[in-house]
């Protein structure tokens, strides 16, 4: 893992990326939440325990740190501190955050489908959790695949409501992007399967529904399918499935979700599976980035010596938005309820991703995805998904 001190080298390049206009400040007079005492507000960053072996996740965390270095001084009424943390379980990270009396927010999980391990913990103390890249459908929308979600995931939903948000587009948007690409390829017969995870089942259900709405037949034998989608959380499980599917359906195109952008996946694929695989990933091709996004990529290269992974930009955007919400709250920034309310009401916020808004469920209106294929032993984005 490269030294995190490098983040400072790119911070100067991002001085012009300050995000303005977070909306009116919320009052804390009716707050039922725990307020931070003292003059310091701490943002916890959650890191997976194996982050040193996960280059994509490491890039997300480095982007978060880059944004903190660039924007931290916008908060005038409190000292702002950053606390990276990682344990054997993600729940450890969240519990460490809620036991620190200075914590104002938790920049949460990276791999899709993992925030369900921690949103209940942070919700119990009305602590805002912002995920940079977990777009699991069940975190922000109802889905037939996960009974009771999203409310059932929040320990104190009846008291505090939703305290989770993300800037990454939802898996529901990802499913529509997958199906739009299948339709563009002329696919008329789709085979859909999933692993046993909530994330995988929800993605499979969303893809099935979107495909049927687009006039694509879903079901039937795997061997006769023109395309195969596998909703899956574990990269190892995904590789096993796709290797088998490549043998049983030798002419089918293979589609996998953005969970496969993290962890050890590509080295486990057979040559046959790798040659026909399409992985959808939130984000933009370099040529499609807005000016602020291109500036972020340049600063990241200066700081860390390589081009950032496609999803790293969401780490930068998440941290930047969080800091600007804290700054907008001014003297009320130590009120957790005020910070949650302000974040969930972000509207037309300028950012490295372009302008975006959030709804009350913590979902963004962004819908940008790319498709990646395997090249030189890694996933390489090559095609922008249809949007709108």
What are the SSEs and their pairings?
Elements: H1 7-11, E1 40-46, H2 55-71, E2 79-85, H3 90-99, E3 103-107, H4 119-123, E4 128-131, H5 157-160, E5 164-166, H6 171-184, E6 189-194, H7 198-213, E7 217-218, E8 227-231, H8 235-248, E9 253-256, H9 271-275, E10 277-282, H10 291-304, H11 312-329, H12 336-343, E11 369-375, E12 378-384
Parallel strand pairs: 1-2, 1-3, 3-4, 4-5, 6-7, 6-8, 8-9, 9-10
Antiparallel strand pairs: 10-11, 11-12
Specify the overall morphology.
globular
Amino- and carboxy-terminal Cα gap: 38 Å
Q: What's the CATH superfamily of the largest domain, by name? A: Response regulator
* Tally of DSSP helical segments: 12
Strand order of the largest sheet: 7-6-8-9-10-11-12
Mean pLDDT: 92
Structural class: alpha/beta
State the CATH topology of the largest domain. Answer: Rossmann fold
Sketch the major β-sheet: 7 strands, mixed
CATH architecture of the largest domain: 3-Layer(aba) Sandwich
Gyration radius (Cα, Å) is 20 Å
Using DSSP, what is the number of strands?
12
Low-confidence stretches: 1-32
- List the helices and strands in order: HEHEHEHEHEHEHEEHEHEHHHEE
Q: Helix proportion of residues, in percent?
A: 25-40%
Domain tally: 2
Strand content of the residues, in percent?
Answer: 15-25%
User: For this structure, what is the CATH class of the largest domain?
Assistant: Alpha Beta
Short recap of the structure:
This protein is an alpha/beta fold. Helices cover 34% and strands 16% of the residues. It has a seven-stranded mixed β-sheet with strand order 7-6-8-9-10-11-12, sandwiched between helices.
């Amino acid at each position: 893992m490269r030294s995190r001190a490098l983040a400072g080298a790119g911070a100067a390049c991002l001085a012009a990326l300050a995000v303005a206009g977070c909306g009116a400040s919320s009052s804390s007079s009716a707050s039922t939440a725990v307020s931070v005492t003292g003059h310091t507000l701490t943002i916890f960053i959650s890191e997976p325990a194996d982050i040193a072996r996960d280059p994509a996740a490491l890039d997300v965390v480095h982007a978060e740190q880059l944004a903190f270095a660039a924007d931290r001084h916008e908060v005038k009424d409190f000292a702002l501190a950053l606390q990276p943390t990682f344990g054997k379980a993600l729940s450890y990270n969240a519990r460490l955050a809620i036991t620190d009396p200075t914590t104002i927010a938790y920049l949460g999980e990276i791999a899709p489908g993992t925030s369900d391990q921690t949103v209940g913990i942070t919700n119990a103390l009305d602590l805002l959790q912002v995920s940079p890249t977990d777009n699991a459908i069940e975190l922000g929308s109802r889905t037939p695949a996960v009974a009771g979600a999203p409310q059932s995931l929040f320990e104190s939903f009846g008291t505090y409501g939703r305290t989770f948000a993300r800037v990454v587009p939802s898996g529901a948007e990802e499913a529509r992007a997958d199906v739009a690409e299948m339709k563009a390829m002329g696919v008329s017969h789709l085979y859909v399967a999933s692993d046993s995870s909530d994330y995988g089942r929800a993605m499979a259900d969303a893809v099935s529904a979107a495909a049927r709405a687009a006039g694509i037949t879903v079901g039937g034998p795997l061997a006769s399918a023109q395309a195969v989608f596998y909703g899956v959380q574990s990269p190892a499980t995904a590789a096993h499935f796709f290797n088998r599917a490549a043998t049983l359906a030798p002419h089918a195109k293979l589609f996998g979700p953005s969970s496969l952008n993290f962890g050890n996946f590509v080295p486990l694929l057979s040559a046959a599976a790798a040659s026909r695989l399409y992985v959808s990933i939130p984000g933009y091709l370099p040529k499609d980035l807005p000016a602020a996004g291109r500036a972020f990529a340049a600063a990241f290269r200066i700081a860390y010596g390589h081009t950032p992974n496609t999803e790293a930009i969401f780490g930068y955007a998440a941290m930047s938005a969080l800091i600007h919400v804290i700054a907008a709250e001014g003297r009320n920034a130590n009120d957790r309820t005020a910070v949650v309310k302000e974040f969930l009401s972000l509207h037309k916020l300028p950012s490295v991703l372009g302008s975006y808004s959030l709804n009350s469920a913590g979902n963004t209106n962004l819908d940008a995805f790319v498709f990646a294929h395997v090249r030189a032993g890694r996933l390489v984005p090559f095609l922008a998904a249809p949007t709108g």
